[in-house]
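Response to reviewer comment R2.3. The reviewers asked that we include at least one raw input/output pair. We reproduce the pair for Amidase family protein here without editing.
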Amino acid sequence: MIKKLLGLLTWIVAFNTSALELKTIDEIHSAYKNNKITAQQLTQGYIKRINQLNPQFNAVINIEPTAVTQAKKIDELSAQGLWAGPLHGIPVLLKDNIETTGSLPTTAGSLALKNNITNNDAFVVKQLRNAGAIILGKTNLSEWANFRSSYSSSGWSAVGGQTHNAHDTTRNPCGSSSGSAVAIALNFAPVALGTETDGSITCPASVNGVYAIKPSMGQVSRSGVVPLSSSQDSVGPMAHSLKDARLVLSVLQGRDPLDTSTHSFELQVLPKITKSSLVIGALPSDKFTVETQRLYKKQLSALKQAGHTVVNINISDDLATLFFDEYYILLYDFNKEINQYLANTSDQVKVKSLSALIDFNKQNKAAEMPHFGQDILIQANAIDLTQTDKYQKTKHRYRTLATAAITNLYKNNNVDVVIAPTTSPAWKTDLVNGDNFKGSSSSLSAIAGTTHITLPVGQVSGLPVGLSIIANKNQPQGAYQHAQIIDAVFISPIKKPE
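Raw output as returned:
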């Protein structure tokens, strides 16, 4: 009996080790096909890892109760020689502003939504299930997608607490999709979904050292996602490889009648690379930390040594009004759209309006506002929604300006691709003073609605710094191909924490 127990223990240890080595979709699918692991074993392995490590990082809010049952169904298909789809048996974590069927609430990190059990799959979740994915659980986030306080600490929510960076728990994970990025970096799952309005996918991916894609506007539906701004909101994947992120995006995309922004664009299989040498437009890095600037110079040198032409470029358009306009649009959209969302929640949710939310936070100040307030919510609530002409003119102006700025970077400099540091390394988490961002490359893509890809191809003092691929308008296909070429120059420099 003792020998049998020792043998079982040895198998369990071996399983845990091999499971943790499986990170990409190809690796997992190969293990399935070669009978090295089952979907149930893999799912249970991730759950065990989350239970062991998550208390140190606060990346995951809830594990989906049906995850193992989902995995068993996948194994039943496998036993019949059937394949559920391109994400067959791939566990996926979801940011907790994405709705799912079942017993888990969708909280956006707020205690006001702690009972928000919608029993509805967001469009992207339906797409994942149809592709054979296993919904593993919900990840922590900056409360209300970081649109509550000007002095917030990214990754903090009243529901999930403070998420910690995967590489250094004293440092910030960036937000608002903080839990999703940290979860991938810690290998809590091979894939996670985040959402972005401006930087909320790319920044956390950058400072935690994972691949991520903020897709083009209209490529992926936002229905079933707690809104911030329909003008800029997007849903995108984080993964251990560019190939995986791109595959997941191809699953997520599609026309959805509940989101009129979506269209029938389809991400095609990448063609064989015919252009080995790129003309790369490098945006300046002077707004990033000095060490980030030094890293960027080394990256540009490596690209040159790999045979690419690097051209220093700069934004020629006057962006003086851009960020003021953006803030107005976000305030207007949030007022309108969060009121609509809250009004249509179930009877279990007592907060039915933005005004009621503000009052709820005041009444629950000890739990909801122990570190920072809600000045952004108050500003949004004061926006006059009857000023539709002002809104439409502002929206046209800011989107036209951002789109022209990107288009001119490509046209005026005759480059194949535009790159920049995604952001500087993670700062020390500061619950008293809030975030300490040093540079960002997210806004033009976020406002123009173009694709933004971040690659984990460098470190500063052991902390990850992403490299951004900023796509031209209506050119996502080229962006993925160029990102693939650039990624190949840098061979896994990020050491993932174990």
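Residues 1-17 have pLDDT under 50 and may be disordered. Residues 332 and 388 are 10 Å apart (CA to CA). Further pairs are available on request from the corresponding author.
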